[in-house]
């Protein structure tokens, strides 16, 4: 099962293959949806928590890309990186445009998941 390609990203807007346009996305092998931060109570600080990535793993992602936003304001809690490492999941953290490029490259050959924030 392949992960959907991100067609475009600009401040506050993303287009993902097969999905309605939106602002932030949670993507994984076989699909994805707009990322609703309120699901887990996520905020810019302390940032992406282990529970934010569980859905990606549940859908078979063996590689995860986490975007920190266009201005790197979104943090990633070290506990999340420890959690993914304990699961043997290759993890990449980058500014959103770089994260999108990396995700699209990985999606061509691997079961990749990602969290993408298109502003700050």
From TrEMBL:
One Pfam family named in its UniProt record: DUF498
CDD domains linked: Mth938
Top-level taxon of the source organism: Bacteria
Protein name: Mth938-like domain-containing protein
Species of provenance: Paractinoplanes lichenicola
